[in-house]
Design goal:
The chain is of the alpha/beta class. It is built from 14 helices and 15 strands.
Length: 394
């Protein structure tokens, strides 16, 4: 019969059976259909530095990267990544053996988990988590063990005792995200030291998602976990150009790690995209060499936008968690007399002409995230002002 498969088993691999269309695709489609302002998906509505964009155009015209680039990434970008890690954090990496370029941080996460996790291994991840974490752990055949960040005194905090209790004899890897999406929490030096101590004590690998490394505010400090004693040889550090330089569509990410870990991740990565973003790799190499004034200006701009949106949301009546990092504000809808973030977000475009994302989608413990909703502030100031006006009028 038409439409029937040759087996009674569903077409989708059972490891992915619980994963449908991402919430970002759903809410972005809803924004297009309703004409709403999209504060759901985390992408800027302006391009990054003109000099970086022109570097990509120059690479295209010069024929650099138009054919397959080297599997580990073009040498210029690998050198620039290594120089960035040393300049900002004092971490020295060999561009030839300790740096790997990927198709964005999302592929870096996927390749790392596919390479390092086997069926039956447990992966401890901070909850709420970026949605690809769960899918990648599932594809690797691992078991996800969430440790929930909980609201405390206006921010989401990690309970170090809960983290320690989550580690068992089956734990293979800690998956750490700081600055943290979606809560905006930036783990402190003391918290990271405790995580490092646990990893060394229990001989765990660690994958750290640090894509928001330069988007920190109000004196918050981003400290790579790889910089702590005993961690360089067991940590895969992930970052990307999309968030720092506002070219999310280029999908240029990378990992830095010890040679054995890079070799393992490369073994998985080569069978995913193989290579990608050839001309853009040359442009990102130039971006990474921009002066510190660029990063300072970016943070100042985003801090002003954070304050604008956070103040507007508070005036509407949301409970607001002012982020110390990233470009997202998490809010609590319970002060509005509501407690279902999914229903709220699906109704908001028609009601107010604004799109947000329900945080519950980032939780295994859905009830823990039910009343929280995330708004992105990486948009032009007039767009944020209009979004606030619409929310106030709704």
């Amino acid at each position: 019969m038409a439409g029937m498969t040759s087996s009674a088993r569903p077409p989708l691999n059972r490891r992915l059976a619980g994963f449908g269309t991402t919430i970002f695709a759903e809410m972005s489609a809803l924004a297009v259909r309703t004409g709403a302002i999209n504060l759901g998906q985390g992408f800027p509505d302006t391009d990054g530095p003109e000099a970086v964009r022109e570097a990509a155009v120059r690479a295209l015209r010069d024929g650099r990267g138009n054919q397959y680039p080297p599997g580990p990434g073009v040498p210029e970008l690998r050198a620039a990544i290594a120089a960035h890690q040393e300049r900002h954090y004092g971490l020295e990496y060999d561009p030839d053996t300790e740096v790997l370029v990927t198709a964005g941080a999302t592929e870096a996460i996927a390749a790392s988990l596919l390479a390092l996790v086997e069926p039956g291994d447990e992966v401890v991840a901070l909850e709420p988590y970026y949605d690809s974490y769960a899918a990648c752990v599932a594809m690797a055949g691992g078991t996800r063990v969430p440790v929930t960040l909980r609201p405390h005194e206006g921010a989401f905090r990690l309970d170090l005792d809960e983290l320690r209790d989550a580690v068992t004899d089956r734990t293979r890897l800690l998956l750490i995200n700081t600055p943290h999406n979606p809560t905006g929490t930036v783990l402190t030096r003391a918290e990271l030291a405790a995580v490092a101590e646990l990893a060394v004590e229990r001989d765990l690998l660690v994958v750290t998602d640090e894509v928001y490394e330069h988007l920190v505010f109000d004196g918050a400090e981003h400290v790579p976990l790889a910089s702590f004693p005993g961690m360089r040889e067991r940590t895969v550090t992930i970052s990307s150009a999309g968030k720092t330089y506002s070219f999310t569509g280029w999908k240029v990410g990378w990992i830095t790690a010890a040679p054995a870990l890079v070799a393992a991740v490369r073994s998985a990565k080569q069978y995913l995209t193989y290579v990608s973003a050839g001309p853009f790799q040359y442009a990102v190499a130039e971006a990474l060499a921009l002066p510190e004034s660029y990063l300072t200006g970016l943070r100042e701009d985003l801090r002003a936008k954070r304050d604008l949106l956070a103040a507007g949301l508070a005036e509407v009546g949301f409970g607001v968690f002012r982020p110390a990092g990233t470009y997202f504000v998490t809010t609590d809808i319970r002060p509005l007399g509501l407690d279902d973030g999914f229903a709220f977000c699906r109704a908001l475009p028609e009601r107010a002409g604004v799109v947000a994302v329900p945080n519950a989608v980032f939780y295994d413990h859905r009830e823990a995230g039910a009343p929280f909703v995330r708004f992105a502030f990486c948009k032009r100031t007039p767009v944020l002002e209009e979004a606030v006006r619409r929310l106030k009028a709704a």
